# Entry
Amino acid sequence: MGNNGSTRASRKPSERSSRKKPAGGGVSRRALLIGGGAVVAAGTVAVLVRDEVKRAWWRVPGVAKPRKAGELDYAGATWVAASEANWRRADRPDDFGIDRVIIHVTQGSFDSAVRVFQDPAHRAATHYIVGQDGRVVQMIRELDVAYQAGNRSFNERAVGIEHEGFVDRPKDLTKAMYESSARLTASICARHGIPIDREHIIGHVEVPGTDHTDPGPHWDWDRYLKLVRRAATAPPTPAPTASATASASAKAE
# Structure
């Protein structure tokens, strides 16, 4: 093989002259292809930038994303707001995809869990709390990031559920709690397209880097997943009555 110079020198004049130029000094097909690719690439970038701005506009100082006070993601819950120091605003799943449910145990009573999640000094909270009697309180919107797992990545991708009780007391894990929590988890999985399995429904102890042990050795994962799968195929349950809502709110205050 010769170098570029020798190759060009050996080419006959007729070969060079036989290549026609575009009429009227027009743009060659190669130039159109290259230029068209640049236009497509620029258009793709413009769409990506537009979508990112659309998702992030409310983060501009002085601009707040529209929200309704007390709005629920799960109809079976009542709303009691956590302190804003225990979570951060987000736009999930647009900014962070949700692909996990994290199961916690409170190591205390239902009411004490509500109180600490309302305390700005606590610096932690979950989206939901489930009581031994089956009642459910939502304290953080699912679109927001709860400081729940001690791992930023898992906080950003997960919805957290606390359960009333202690990890070393199997009697605290009641039938009403399991069934109520399973309905809640099935609802979360349906909303976010989360598979109902042990890879995507995990305990706090399984979060990388955590020093927590909940939900503990007495949490019956086989039983729980069966209940979640059953709830996922069951008809939706009615919303709580006004009296039940008032009662739960009063107990949480």
Observations:
- Confidence is low (pLDDT under 50) at residues 1-25, 27-35, 239-253.
